[in-house]
Design goal:
By secondary structure, the chain is mainly alpha-helical. 44% of the residues lie in helices and 6% in strands.
Amino acid sequence: MIFEFVELSPLDLSKAATLKWTDFEDAVQSVLAEKIKADFIVTRNIRDFKKSKVMALTPSECIARI
């Protein structure tokens, strides 16, 4: 399966807030990716995920890996 959907909980939002990233939405994505043990986060803005525990790839990098 290439994609997985995950439920967002108040705890996830709290964890994202504690990261204190400049972009809260990116922090939420990182927390959820870690929660489901995702292999990658696919984004056009990989700079914002430098602190993420889940590696970020551009769409073209992801396609190359598939």
